[in-house]
Amino acid sequence: MFEHVAHWISEQVDNAVDKSEEVDLSPILSGGALRAITDVALGSPIDDLGPEFVEVNTRLLEIASTRSSGQIVFDAIAVYIPKPLLRLMINLPSSAFRALRASKMLSRNIGWQLVREKLGAPEGSYDADIYSSLLHADKKDSTKKTLHPADLVAQTSLILLAGQDTTTPEEIYTTLSTAGSSDQYDNMPLLNAFIKETLRMYPAAALSERVALEDSVIPLATPITTRSGKTIDAIPSEEFDPERWLDGRVRQGEAIGPYANLILEMQTIVCDLIGKFAFSTSENEDGPFRLRLATTLLPLNGKGEKGAKLCVKRVV
């Protein structure tokens, strides 16, 4: 399933290269992530959901990626507004709230349509997708409880937005990190290390309330001596160093759990991309890429706009 999405993304990049060597990966990867989440979670191809669904979803992501001064002030005030009043504010006649209302209606309609299909599906398809698994959990294991259809439908919008807008930035940052390192592309352990280091440095769902205005450095009064006898004077946590995942410096457990599918998605897509294309930063950009913390961590170009324009060349 992820391989199908990876091939679709590669085709979009290949078509874009025909028009220009500079390709903005952000909308392409975002579209691929949406295809992946509809296939895996809903068990429905994105083409079956209709163009209106894709249009509204894209609009919501655009709204979520902007952080105007007014939005920042509203976010600070919103914590003091009673929740019942906040729920009523969705009826305000602004473009953002209109998009939210449209998304809520479409997600509810699509959710109920899919739930009815899953409930009437034959027994052999109970593991076909996440919705089917949740609706038929007790059929596979009598100790588990099924999720009530209404509760599952209520989560449809969140599942789609969260699943799309968290993996897209990570794939962009990983591609940026491997740009210019063609001799590393065939080394899967190193590619996995790049992905893990990208997730460490650029967490998609970083919490804004944990972002410090200034760095606070606590100097080591006494160097730390490890069990191997190595002395550590400083921990280079701000350095992008994929080697830390390969040389034993980081303890790697098995507690990936429910996030394993996200790692697999990134592995499949990034590996397919760097196997077919060579990426490098664009010389025409007005400054280096920057980050913006909105709903998720987003890449910005030199003009402060959401995007990740790279120079792309075919290698196969």
Automatic annotation (TrEMBL):
Family annotation (InterPro entries): Cyt_P450, Cyt_P450_sf, Cytochrome_P450_monoxygenase
Primary residence: membrane
Record's subcellular location: Membrane
Cofactor: heme
Xref: Pfam families: p450
Pathway linked to the protein: Secondary metabolite biosynthesis; terpenoid biosynthesis
Transmembrane region(s): none
Transferase found in the keyword field: no
Sample GO molecular function, one term: oxidoreductase activity, acting on paired donors, with incorporation or reduction of molecular oxygen
Keywords from the named record: Heme, Iron, Membrane, Metal-binding, Monooxygenase, Oxidoreductase, Transmembrane, Transmembrane helix
Superkingdom field: Eukaryota
The keyword Coiled coil is assigned to this record: no
GO CC terms in record: membrane
Family: Belongs to the cytochrome P450 family.
Name of this protein: Cytochrome P450
Gene source species: Favolaschia claudopus
